[in-house]
Specification:
The chain is of the alpha/beta class. The chain has two domains: 2-113 and 299-346, Rossmann fold; 115-297, 2-Layer Sandwich (Dihydrodipicolinate Reductase, domain 2), CATH 3.30.360. The protein is built from eleven helices and 15 strands. It has helices at residues 14-21, 69-76, 89-96, 114-129, 150-159, 201-209, 225-238, 243-261, 297-316, 329-332, 335-345; strands at residues 2-7, 27-32, 56-59, 81-84, 107-110, 134-142, 164-168, 171-175, 178-185, 191-197, 213-220, 269-277, 288-294, 325-328, 351-355. The chain is globular and about 50 Å long. 51% of the residues are buried.
Length: 359
Amino acid sequence: MQRVLVIGGSGHYGAQVVETLRKLDDVEVIPAGRRASCRVDLNDPTSFATMDGCDVVINCSDTVRAPPDAAARYCLTRGLVFMDMGADLPTTERLLSLETDAQTTGILLVGVGVFPGLSTALAAKAYALAGRPGAVTLGVRLSPLSGAGPGNCELMTSMLAIPSMRVEDGRRVEGPAVDAAIPLPFGDAGTRAASVIGLPDAALIHRSTEAPDVRTALAVTPGFLRFNFRALALLIGWAGALRRPLLALTRWSLYLMRGVLFRRVDTPVRLTAIARPRDVPETDPRAIALVLDVPDGREGTALGVAAALACWLRRAGGDVRAPPGVYTVPALFELDALLAAARELSDTPLTLSAHGLER
């Protein structure tokens, strides 16, 4: 029996993760949090001893207000597996840069879920299928007019206030929080305008594939909302002394909308990973795209987490064991294995299609 502790297990996404993990055989799922009977507070290292005796720790909490760095280091030095579900770019980059040494006995898996998670594995597969052509772009299409918890609203607010990140010629390059839109192919949904934005997959894909050019973009539905988000990001950047109250107003507006008005509204997610030569755009016939449809984003996030855990448990029980250290999802698991594990846990179809492979 594997003991799996879920930090933030009562939150909007965490509760769904707990419910999904309980479908796995031989797994005891233990919800934890700041106010839970099993207390783990990421801002209070004295609470970390609660994680001792567990095999795997999964972090579903708000990584903007409660950075998981110290808890991840704790697990790395005590032989535990720490899986982080966070989608905050600065947090992802810090976790990827954690140093390991001879005293490291645990595993840190950065970016489990849908995006990041399945999205990173999707991009790695597209890049490999295309023969590592030099550039890879990840596009995410969803509606922000859907339910979310306080952590997700905090994340959206943070993304509007920090520079985006992409990789050019192997170098990290920053840009506006919400940059100009580019056309991206989303399979049979057609080409959509997607705003270049700093998703954590930019760092994760570069780490996983070593592609010299990587960028990520968000295509919101309805499409006119991209103008609202870009204007808001510009306003926050120009706000000066009014920046903090404007961020607070944005945060509470998002929470009122997504946490109250649209709390029970689900949104489908469509991911497109486009691999291409560095000198051609994403819509060029020489590019290929893998498109993954996730009918319910919240359930899909939980399935992505559970699939990573299922694949890890199978690997840990086999002959090939990963040495201690810091990993991305595609460094340990193939996309096909993750999708197969997800399909074993739900009747919800996660549909993968390829476009451009006929050349």
